[in-house]
Amino acid sequence: MSKLFTKDTQAIFWNNNTSAIQRMLDYDYTIGRETPSIAAIVAPTSSAKFDKFFWGGEEIMIPLYRSTSEAANEHKNADVLLNFGSFRTAYDVVMEAIELNGQFKTIMVTAEGIPERRARTMNQAARDKGVTVIGPATVGAIAPGAFKIANIGGTIENIVNSKLNRCGSCGLVTRSGGLFNEMSNIISLNADGIAEGVAIGGDRFVGSVFIDNLLRMESNPDVKYMILLGEVGGAEEYKVIEAVKNGKIKKPIISWCIGTIAKHFESGVQFGHAGASANADRETAEAKNRAMKEAGFYVPDSFNDIPATIHAVYEDLLSKGVIEPIVEPKVKSIPKNRKVRNFICTISDDRGEEATYCGIPISKVATPDTGFSIGDVMSLLWFKQRYPKWAVEFIETVLKTVADHGPAVSGAHNAKVTARAGKDVVSSLIAGLLTIGPRFGGAIDGAAKYFKYGYDNNLSPKEFLSYMKKQGIPIPGIGHRIKSVRNPDLRVSGLKKYADEYFPSHPVLNYALEIEKMTTGKKDNLILNVDGTIGVLMVDMWKELNYDDDEIATFIEAGALNAFFILGRCIGFIGHILDEKRLNMPMYRHPWDDILYDIETAEI
Amino acid sequence: MAQRAIREYDGKAIFSKHWEKYFSGFHYGFKSVLVSSGDELKKKAEEHGFEWLKQEPLVVKPDMLFGKRGKNGLVLFKDKKPGDVSLDVAAKWIDEKISHPITLLSGQHGTLTHLIVEPFTPHSEEQEYYISATTVGEDDVLYMSTEGGMEIEDGWEEKVTEVVIPINMKNANIDHVVRANAPTDLPADKKESFISFAIDFFKFYRDLNFAYLEINPLVMLDDNEMAILDLVARLDDTAGYLMEDEWGKIEFPTAFGMEDQSEEEKAISEADAKSGASLKLTILNPMGRIWTMVAGGGASVVYADTIADLSGNVAELANYGEYSGGPTTGETKFYADTIFDLMTRFKDPKGRDKILIIGGAIANFTDVAKTFTGIIYSLEEYADKLKNVGVKIYVRRGGPNYEKGLKDIKEAADRLGLYMEVYGPETHVTDIVRMSLENGE
Asked: Does A181 touch chain B (CB under 8 A)?
């Protein structure tokens, strides 16, 4: 890996830190990235499915997941994890991420103050698996013009001023995050900006150290020279000296360790970070600066002379042709006023030349010659994809099967009574529809839910029955008023026949039929009824269409199954309403003798 | 902070609390008390369980994080002859020692406030061992020696064996490497005990999140009775939230002499403790000529470095500190008030103008104009005093809204008649130090 990040790098952001994420997306937009640098967000306590962010002036949605594994699974190309967990959770997040099939190549940890032993354990685990850890206790890293982690580089104005919007020629490694910005600025003023920069973090134990980053930069062709800004304390700089001495690093290095002040004072005054305390003479900033100078690094006499040193090295490399002058790219500016949209639509669009259903113009689905039937249109608008023929025809079969069930059922009755009261079609239809619920039509949902549960959890039919008994409700989708084993419901027979012929498989139906054998053994009319058959076959259809269990559960919870009943039964209701209008029947009044009046006089 | 020293008494208390779990093959009495005066010691002696204070000869030492207590003459173990210190003698000695400030051989200066009192343990030199563990680089290292005592540091290389234990080493391997690398000169009758104790010791050090743990000397008495005669320990305080029960109520004292903070330093550290922002102040030389008010931890270091480098005289630097992490206007004003107050108390003895550096790197997301508002309020209040003592102010800052911040502060200085030069990100962060020094000459 010669480059830490490219323009295609995508990350999963752990913790929905909306402001940091927005800054990343603003950066992406400014530098002209095609895809957002954040593929997904892990928000363990959120029940939302996505969050909205700006992409330039437009809003986009970034999916949210409860766990890292789920997010990683759905976004296999995301190989960077930005771990914004607190010092309490960051360790567990890293350890889990390292184990995820090697998907993550780089893990950044922002938390400060992770227990040292945990930090060492996770750093070692990452090293063993070849994962680069940036941090803990860091603002991150940046590959200008390609990918920027969270808040590094500051505001967009500062990023552009410091030329962090495009690739320069310096590889920058600092310990301090606060001075990273400052160094970027200095480099942009005195040279041509940076090609890659990493703030390794201020804690005592950080994952990737100076040498890891500098060795990578040595092999990165964009990096022509490197700057190392170290700190008093620790001996990491000596590893770099070693690498220069044995020829592993050949590119010029400008370096400086801050904290030279410490030599003037007895221990007790803490100058800088937690890791910044010299335990031995060789760990002092002065000793390290001296050693680096002796090894041939470009070491200024004082921090204040860094700009001049950078300028000299840059000019030298420029004159030798190692560095070529950069033509500044155009910067896309972010619109000042960005509007938050209150509504989101993901199925149809009426803004273009012609309105579309999931991107397909209506004229391409409307007429018979298009090959689209009403079931195709339903699958587009309800499920955002065109289902295969067997599934489309199943949907249509369901609609036809549930279209009507005579005038006596409660919904039809209500619709008729309303129509006779002189109300219009829509009022009458609504009056009918309002009866649909747990007692009327609702068994489809329940059947799907419980039979799916039993099937998914490998409950034997016997276990299923005792499970339902514990739930304290009759099994939805089982039982009919008149129909029985000997007098089967022909609608059910038809659905089963269709499934046998056209479904690739229907395990949940088979499962329900096993249960039916037991229930009808108890009582002849406890058959799998039409609601139950539709419910389980819908589950079978979705399973066959490769939806996972969560997605199917979401459909059931959202009421998609009842929706088939509602849509189908509208046909029947409207029929009854038109029937009433045609017959012009008078206002209906229920006869007194059909009502039991039992009124006690209230005490006043 | 991360690794913080604890008192010998607290270290022993942690040992005692977990002794059965880690050192079940050995016995440890934990007869120690921590007192601040002779009176307190005498009262302790009346408590149930502390009868030994009256019955046994005692040893008294300061327990305030500094070492070489013997060489500093601060260990009481004999009145007339070793092992004859009675409760009364101990109490009197304590009262005398706490009655006046002392200066250690290291130059640390302060007053004793905490002393540890324990029974005198008669033993021979052969019974003394050395054991310690700490982190070196990425690994843990266990040090063992058959020679305990103060002289261990002389001839360390010959006396002490080291065992490097990587962070991911399994328990079985730890047992193996400690055994394989134990000192070769362990006496036959103590060999097994010592090795097994050393293995237990390492696991105790590791599991309890010590950063450093040293027993010197460890005295191995008969019947597996262990005496911890002296102990030095540092804990990784970031593990505090995991170790609440294991450590118990633990105190992290400041280094000896350091508790004598000035009122101003105390006030800033109290404000820091209450705030989500970071406010730090150390007064290096109250008579110093150059005062700094720097935003950000990294920047505060480079300003201090540069002042020391360019002035050629570190005594010129009056203070070190930082304000960062988005302090409120009120907090910034308080911080500025404190510094302006300190720097206007004395005129420069050589009659030069004082220098005030209001510095900082390019902020990530701190609103510069907002934080400068607090400084402006403070300048308004201290303008007369600042003029009276003679102060040249140099400002350098970048980040969000910095143009407005710089403009506001410059306007305020002009209005108040204060000398001020103002620079933004186009000027190198520490270059105002050079300018201020050249201007003074």
From this structure: yes
pTM for the model stands at 0.82
Interchain pair A125, B434: CB under 8 A: no
Averaged pLDDT, A187-192: 96
Residue B135 belongs to what H/E stretch? Answer: strand B128-136
Report yes or no: A519 and A478 within 8 Å, Cβ to Cβ. yes
Looking at domain B263-440, its CATH architecture is 3-Layer(aba) Sandwich (3.40)
**Cβ atoms A165, A329 nearer than 8 A:** yes
Contact predicate A114/A203, CB 8 Å: yes
The residues in B 142-181 lying below 8 A from A, measured between CB atoms, are: 166-168
Burial call B182-197: b when 16+ CB within 10 Å, e when fewer? bbeebeeebeeebbbb
Q: Which CATH architecture has domain A10-136?
A: 3-Layer(aba) Sandwich (3.40)
Four-residue CA torsion sign, A425, A428, A431, A432: negative
Pick the CATH number of A137-322 from 3.40.50.2000, 3.40.50.261, 3.30.70.1660, 3.40.50.720: 3.40.50.261
Q: Does A282 touch chain B (CB under 8 A)?
A: no
In A219-294, alpha helices (H): 236-245, 285-294
Amino acid identity at B114: H
Q: Per residue in B242-287, pLDDT tens?
A: 999 999 989 998 888 766 678 899 899 888 888 878 899 999 999 9
Q: Which DSSP letter does residue A437 get? A: B
CA distance B210 to A412: 77
CA distances from A480 to A350, A539, B272 (A): 45, 22, 74
Residue pair A62/A21 in contact (Cβ under 8 Å)? The answer is yes
Helix (H, G, I), strand (E, B) or coil at A402: helix
DSSP code of residue A136: S
Residues of chain A within CATH 3.40.50.261 domain(s) are: 137-322
CA torsion, ordered A76, A82, A86, A87, to nearest 10 deg: 100
Determine the residue among B428, B433, B436 to mutate to test chain A binding: the one whose Cβ has the most chain A Cβ atoms within 10 Å: B428
Asked if residues A68 and A42 have their Cβ atoms less than 8 Å apart, the reply is yes
Taking CA–CA distances from A262, the nearest residue in chain B reads B305
Q: Is A260 on the interface with B (CB under 8 A)?
A: yes
pLDDT tens digits, one per residue of B414-440: 999 999 999 999 999 999 999 999 986
